Amino acid sequence: MNKNNIVQYGKTSLVGIFALATLYSCAPTLKTVQEDTTVPVQYAGQSKDSLNSARIKWKDYFTDPYLDTLIDTALKNNQELNITLQELEIARNEVRARKGEYLPFIGLKGGAGFDKKARYTSQGASEATTDIKPGREMPDPLPDYMAGAYASWEVDIWNKLHNAKKAAISRYLSSVEGKNFVITNLIAEIAGSYYELLALDNQLNIVKQNIEIQNNALKIVKLQKQAARANELAVRKFEAEVLHTRSLQYDIQQEIIETENRINFLIGRYPQPIERKSEAFADLVPDHVHSGLPAELLENRPDVKQAELELAATKLDVKVAKARFYPSLGISASIGYRAFNPKYLLRTPESLLYSLAGDITAPLINRNEIKATYYSANARQIQAVYNYERTLLNAYIEVANQLAKIGNLEKSYDLKSREVDALTRSISISNILFKSARADYMEVLMTQRDALESKFELVETKMQQMNAMVNIYRALGGGWNQANNTRP
């Protein structure tokens, strides 16, 4: 057999081995689930709206300067957000690591040592009987010096390494959306707590005004007792009502402290008073909100984008796991110098050494671990599909709920305002009737209590209105799109 035939035979054998390995490495067929990205064309009970309030930057959406200062501070100091930013850095480094895996690994190495062969061994005896001319005997022990470079590279035939890098990129972008989602929720939580604080201030002011009214009524009933127009029971009832209302004052003060500290925690500082202007709370009117189209949730909501990117990453993970069934081709090479004496180390070609090798490996018999990894990757992909659909459905329902809530709270606030006006007037009427003995003290007490409760409910409704404005902004995906927080 001549040399050409041997080469041709070698090539044929290599191709045959590669084909055989590929044949036996086929991946099993798996059942997959395709995600459903369809959403209704408009929100239930709402007309189509081409405008979308989510595109408004938070500094333009929230016009209270004290609130803007709190949000701006939180975006710099909030610990949860800073933790998320470090997770983003970890994901970015994962992309770099995956990118480096499909590039050749090149390194330098050098070494020095010596080797002493035992005389009564096969190698020692062979060296002792070698016919070497006098003065040119092999050194004993034998020094060894080496310097060179080496390289190794896995040829990415099935795009296993490239898909792993793409999956890492998708997860990095998913981390970016996770950061945006944290920003959106952080802004909403601070704004909601701020409006709650304003509401508590107003409730405290109502309680103080009511205490003054009740003290005046107590003075009147004491005077009437002296004039024998009221009895001790009426006096005690009025005193009890004053004490009850005063106890409410301290309950509200405690809620104010806790709400202030919740805001302080969110902006990353120790407890201190929160600057605010509570007097204008009753005059606050929620801005008209534009809901846009449900399909815009796919682009505006960070959690929906995060779920979408995580789904894309899991699909690539399946491809990576599938590629493990197929043969892999590795190439290694090295070049350098080696000699037993440093003065001969750089002599060329005597001290020059080099190597080049390639190898093909493929799983043939025990593939249980690869199959298990493949099945698990597919299961995680199906999980990601359902998680994406759930996140999208939840986003739509949140917007629909808040849109309905805004409309219902507007009607409720109007009715409660009229109720407060009626009960406020009834306090004066009941006092006049009580003085003229045309109403008993219980009617006066119940009127005062009803008026207090109605004022509390009115403030509570106003707070719910402002929180609904905050929550619809968050539900639509607003807040993250500030100038320094945009998507890459």
From TrEMBL:
PROSITE patterns with a match to the protein in the record: PROKAR_LIPOPROTEIN
GO terms under cellular component: plasma membrane
Keyword Transmembrane: yes
Alphabetic keyword roster: Coiled coil, Lipoprotein, Membrane, Palmitate, Signal, Transmembrane, Transmembrane beta strand
Location of this chain's protein in the cell: Cell membrane
Keyword Lipoprotein set for record: yes
Coiled coil: 71-98
SUPFAM superfamilies: Outer membrane efflux proteins (OEP) (SSF56954)
Span of the signal peptide: 1-27
One Gene Ontology term of the molecular function aspect: efflux transmembrane transporter activity
Pfam family, one: OEP
Matches recorded under InterPro entries: MdtP/NodT-like (IPR010131), OMP_efflux (IPR003423)
Membrane-topology annotation of the record: Lipid-anchor
Family membership noted in the UniProt record: Belongs to the outer membrane factor (OMF) (TC 1.B.17) family.
Protein name from the UniProt record: TolC family protein
Source species: Sinomicrobium weinanense
